[in-house]
Amino acid sequence: MIAASRRMGGLLAATGLGIALILTFYTGSATAESSDERDARLTEQVRKLIPKAEDPAIRSTPVDGIFEVVVDDQVLYITEKGRYIFAGDMLDVEERENLSETARGRGRSEQVAKLDDDDLITYPAEEERHRVTIFTDIDCPYCQRLHEKIEAYNERGITVQYAAFPRAGKDSGAWDKAVAVWCADDRGAAMDRAMEEGSDGGGEACDSHPVGDQLDLAGELGIRGTPTIVADGGQMIPGFVPPEKLAEALEE
Q: Which CATH number fits domain 35-112: 3.30.360.10, 3.10.450.70, 3.30.1490.10, 3.40.50.2300?
């Protein structure tokens, strides 16, 4: 056995294969795939399943050989060789964390961040601890109830910025009110009046406004009802949440 091993070693040395194998083992330069190359390969596999996935975000996960794929607000998982793609939530039992929801939140946060601050109606907290984006509808009773407590949210360090989501869509009264408020010279004052009266807030329609873009974004985020709160970390909280409960949820 020892003699046979020596003969094999001599053969490898004589042919140069031994050196080549050693270099490949230690450097990986002959066969290694860069992370960019891997992501490009996995992206192509994802596109076979989802042709419209122009630029999916691919990240590693705590599980070896499994990668996270985020397409819009959808989270998928793909094996390292790209053969298998599957959906479902990945849970970290020890940390008690839903890793899939964390990924979805990250995607939402990135999408909301694309909104122009000048297009949002903002009620700032003096000592800001959190900033939330609330998709609101002037005709929604729970949106009106939430707005009644806007100062209480601010007192708890929560800055509120409103995005328009007239649920009835274009050519509706809710749409017209949203446009009038967003076109007002003083949007904050117009929003206050609109929420109190269920009116247009004294504003008038204009040609240039962000209501359509914000309505489209709500659809991309999967928002169906109002109010819907998107927290600074991307968590989505549907419905009216009292100031003290929202503060607790954001701290957690």
A: 3.10.450.70
